[in-house]
Write a structure and sequence with these properties.
This protein has 221 residues and is mainly alpha-helical. The chain is built from 7 helices and no strands.
Length: 221
């Protein structure tokens, strides 16, 4: 097998691995959003106990990237692809961590009997899920324009986070004895927002891959 053909196959294999990781992470986020609504303890514990799968796959992807860099010394677009995958790999692992954190917060809130406050996280959760899906679709299709749509979605997620913060602060002012549980309620919004931020970073890496342009903070919306 020629060196070029071998390199091409390794690149294709690497793409498959990062997409597989992306699919697993999207599933974790979907389950976390479901747990916010249904407070399913069994599902929450299952999410906590499966976090090692994401961690292991992140290591596999990183090692594969480093091996390709060392053996083939790619240049131009191939080099951008490897760099983008290394960064996206890390972002996906962090997104999965936030999904686990959401499950932890729900379990903690469930142990707090004196929290009667409820905030509707469904619109925010749905927007975050949409961001993750669009981000992965942009990666699969290598579509910079699709990636840029995430920047606008991220602004909406930030707005939901601010609403949650305001609602929780108002509730704390009314019922100071519920502080610990209410803080955990707000942290759910914070974790969702951070998933959005990490997905925003993935969009920036897709744009870098496709256009060779380093974009930070949403670039030119």
């Amino acid at each position: 097998m020629g060196r070029h053909m071998h390199f091409h196959r390794e690149i294709e294999g690497l793409k498959q691995k990062i997409l597989e990781l992306g699919g697993l992470v999207e599933d974790r986020v979907r389950k976390a959003c479901s747990i916010i609504e249904n407070h399913d303890h069994e599902q929450a514990n299952a999410l906590l106990n499966s976090d090692w799968e994401i961690d292991d796959m992140e290591i596999v992807v990183e090692e594969e990237c480093l091996k390709i860099l060392a053996l083939h010394q790619p240049v131009a677009r191939d080099l951008r692809l490897i760099v983008a995958i290394i960064k996206i790999n890390s972002e996906l692992e962090r997104i999965a961590d936030y999904a686990v954190n959401i499950a932890k917060r729900v379990l903690t809130i469930e142990k707090t009997d004196n929290v009667s406050f409820h905030f509707d996280y469904q619109p925010m959760a749905e927007k975050v899920l949409e961001m993750v899906k669009v981000g992965l679709d942009a990666l699969v299709s290598e579509d910079a324009d699709l990636a840029r749509k995430i920047f606008h979605m991220d602004e909406e997620v930030d707005r939901y986070r601010n609403l949650a913060y305001k609602a929780v602060i108002e509730e704390i002012d009314k019922h100071r004895g519920d502080g610990a549980g209410l803080v955990n309620m707000y942290l759910i919004a914070r974790h969702l927002e951070r998933i959005g931020d990490r997905t925003n970073n993935i969009a920036e890496e897709v744009i870098y891959l496709v256009e060779g342009e380093i974009v930070r903070g949403g670039g030119n919306l």
